[in-house]
Write a structure and sequence with these properties.
five-stranded antiparallel sheet, mainly beta, eight-stranded mixed sheet, 3 helices
């Protein structure tokens, strides 16, 4: 088994960054989901509420001290990150501490989304993961994507729909399910896979436009409903980092 793709999102809900290598710390990829968006009521915003934001390409440094946003019209907003008031965001029942980001970033994103948004930088790397530091890595096999394509009657399914950190090849479709509860060596790092990823409607959206164009949930329900898991509509796996290290495209993957 080998790593075939590495992707992360500096801002939750915005476009993915594809890279050739990442450094996994105990808290995951330091730049991954360092920022997120909330509405005026403080509610966490993701692709279900503002799918078009996936068209925005974001980049940040390791410590989240600068940010660059490239919009679909070619305009760019970039500069130093200036922090404002402290806020606490509810991440699916888990409180996450952060600070509002002052300046024009949120205003530009609000205009594209068509609704008022505020940008937040989490205080601690890894906290912006949906499941916290024990859920900062995720993986999906090419075989699983091919199985979904067959079930959907599509020539292929773009793995970016599922917003996973790693795609791997050299394993049977959904073979990664068997990693749950096990340690897995990925490149120089070792991770512990803690469970299967339950899916939501965001996966139905085109990863370039944010417009729904594939009934992923219907397809998963059709052929994966018998899988025993606490997560609804499982597709891919999640876990945390036990031994930090660098992971590169082409690196070996081995269940231990």
């Amino acid at each position: 088994m080998v790593v075939t793709s590495i992707s992360y999102a500096p801002v939750k809900g915005l476009g993915l960054v594809r890279v050739d290598e990442v450094e996994l710390e105990r808290t995951g990829v330091r730049e991954n989901r360092r920022f997120h968006l909330i509405d005026d009521d403080g509610r966490l915003i993701n692709g279900k509420f503002a799918g078009t934001l996936v068209q925005v390409a974001a980049a940040t440094d390791r410590d989240g001290e600068s940010l660059s946003l490239r919009f679909p019209d070619g305009s760019v907003h970039d500069g130093a990150v200036t922090l404002g008031d402290a806020v606490e965001t509810n991440f699916y029942g888990r409180p996450v501490a952060g600070r509002l980001v002052d300046g024009a970033f949120a205003e530009a994103l609000s205009q594209l989304a068509g609704r008022p948004l505020r940008l937040v930088r989490v205080d601690e790397p890894g906290d912006g993961s949906d499941r916290g530091v024990d859920g900062t890595i995720s993986a999906l096999s090419r075989g699983s994507l091919e199985a979904m394509a067959d079930e959907a009657g599509e020539g292929s399914v773009d793995g970016r729909r599922f917003r996973m950190l790693f795609e791997v090849d050299g394993i049977a479709p959904h073979g990664e399910d068997g990693w749950a509860g096990r340690r897995v060596a990925i490149g120089d790092a070792i991770v512990r896979v803690n469970g299967l990823v339950g899916r939501c409607a965001v996966t139905s959206q085109n990863p370039d436009t944010g417009v729904p164009d594939l009934s992923t949930l219907r397809v998963i329900r059709k052929y994966r409903s018998a899988i025993e898991t606490d997560e609804p509509l499982p597709f891919g796996v999640w876990g945390g980092v036990e031994v930090p290290g660098v992971v590169r495209i082409g690196d070996a993957v081995e269940a231990l």
